[in-house]
Amino acid sequence: MDSEPVETCMFFVDDSNIWIEAQKFAALGNRHMPKLKDSDVDPRLRIDIGKLIATLCKGREQGPSFLYGSRPPPNDSVWKAFENKFRFKTKIYNRNLHNKEKEVDNSMATDLVTEAAELRIRAEYNTTFKQKKKKMIFVVITGDRDMLPPVRRVLESDIRVELWGWRKGIAKEYYTESSGLLSVNHLDSEFHKIFFTNFHSTRRVNKAQPVDPARAIVLCGFDEPNGESLDEFSIAKELIQWRHLFFIVPSTSKSEILVEFPNVSNIESMISKSRQLFKGILTVVSWPEYSQRFNKRVPDVVQKKNMYAPLMESHSHHSTYDPGQAACEVAKGKPEPSSNADLKDGHGAKEEEQGLHDPDDNQGWETVTRSDPGKDHRRALRQRQQCPSSVRCRKRGECAYRHSKEERDMFQDNPNQDFSLWKTKRCNKVSCNRGRKCAFAHTPEEGWCLFCKHGGHCTDECRYN
Fold this sequence. Notes:
Elements: E1 8-14, H1 15-27, E2 45-47, H2 49-57, E3 61-62, E4 65-70, H3 78-85, E5 88-93, H4 104-125, H5 127-134, E6 136-141, H6 148-156, E7 160-165, H7 173-176, E8 182-186, H8 191-194, E9 195-197, E10 216-220, H9 232-239, E11 247-250, E12 256-260, H10 267-277, E13 283-286, H11 287-294, H12 323-331, H13 340-345, H14 373-383, H15 405-413
Parallel strand pairs: 1-3, 1-4, 1-6, 4-5, 6-7, 7-8
Antiparallel strand pairs: 2-9, 10-12, 10-13, 11-12
Helix pairs in contact: 4-5, 4-6, 11-12
Region (Disordered): 314-383
């Protein structure tokens, strides 16, 4: 007699949804890492695939599984691990000329509907598949609203769906879905089990330009008695307190390591702080000083295997500065450039006079760059998008996003109203004549939850509260 089937999880994973939102979540700070000051994403984030599967399976069996995303670098090992070790069928698509994902959502939606339909049809004519369908759970890792129609088709086939995503990345429509077969879960609460940080640089090391010399420092003296107590982990533990994005590039000599700060403009400030931090233990020098002292044009670095390349563009600026040439100029008595702005146009000394330094940063670390094409591009995109906070915008419409005429009129007509609490509680009046202008919700559709940041219910009605 055949044994009764065990509960089985069929995974459908939107790779971009995991990584882009995870990098944003990590940059905002958590119990392991402080919030970053100079980046809204943390590309050092890594995933423990085994723990991801084990955490979401919860002791159940893993069934056929699918991973969707854009084509990764040739030496990326994460996709290979999904495919070879964890039995995922990977579906990879090329990005378009504008670096936008194409075909990923459609492919995932097609597989959701196809797998559900096949299981439903077979269950109608076969008792074994009927039991299998009863024990099957579709684990869908996404938050995109585009996936809602195929998810509904799965639910219509009487198959359970566990939706996993980041709290801020899950469309509010999933919370208002009435089917009892759908459960919405947050990866935020499982972050410490699944993800970790790797401070090694993941980009391919190029002998012609292994690091950006205008944004790198060299820590020397690991072979000295005082330096033996320090390793890469202890170095990283100290540097993360500064809340700047950094990468560690080890040296083959094991006597020094390079630390690259891709988003820091004033590297001299970082050198000064590092010298205070490691005083009496390590010697901290700039790359031009290091290259002059040891007569090296480029550092001898170790190429680390790429564990995962970030999906989003880096915010760093690339320098055309030649470290060998700078070393020669220092030797000839010419002043050594002290920041990336000096390296590019020689006007770095004028930046403070022009008010480019951050007045709130009493240590003078950060500068506001003259031009940031990436930032300008993101600003232009926001101006064409509706504000996600809608009428609850804390900036009362003075933000980078678009607001409807109705919202702008509300801000103008109610200058003293705190719109951050708009429609978060039910109206207690039996007959309210203010209609949509009332600050309280009259129907569930008008409600907004401060806890899960989605509509369809008020804060005190949230099932996750």
